[in-house]
Amino acid sequence: MPSSLEKTRKHIAKKRNGEVNALHAKSRDSLRLHKAGVRDQRLEKLAAARSKKEQPIVDRVNFFQESLAEKDNQSLDIETIQSFIKRFIHQYDEEYDGLKKARRPGRPATAREDLLKLKIAALEKEYQTGFVIPNVMSAEHAKNLGKWEGSWAYLTTLPWIRVSSSGQVRSAEFPSKGIN
């Protein structure tokens, strides 16, 4: 997709018979180019922020898609789902323990160690109240999750459930506001 800066540059070049590099600093055309460049930077910044917010959801779905592939994309029972959730929550334990052991006694925790500790605690708290995952309890929904190719738009079509540590399963909305 061409950016607004490229479109503006092309339009100005067309108007000036191919020369864009000979503009006065405060001319209308140079201000248009500057405005288009600022707009492109703003849009890139917004896209990066949106992608950063969406990444935990994509990572979670990717983990459950891979776990489902281990079971040949068959529907799962609640015990299997809970074991996958526990495996997802504790996937950072080895790295956290390694950072903890590598730290000298009496030294404060590193930023990465603190981040992992907070992430694990947040996931465990979410699991107590209800862990949001795509519905894989029926064969049709499991097959649909197996077809997911990584696009954000496809995630909205999947049905979602909330699984608590006590074994309760409730339907849930798509977590568009992010997870954690």
From TrEMBL:
Cellular component GO terms held in the UniProt record: nucleus
A UniProt-annotated Pfam family: Tma16
InterPro entries hit by this protein: Tma16 (IPR021346), Tma16_sf (IPR038356)
Gene3D superfamilies per UniProt: Translation machinery-associated protein 16-like (1.20.1440.170)
Disordered: annotated span: 1-20
Spans traversing the lipid bilayer: none
Family according to the record: Belongs to the TMA16 family.
Protein name stated in the entry: Translation machinery-associated protein 16
Organism: Metarhizium guizhouense (strain ARSEF 977)
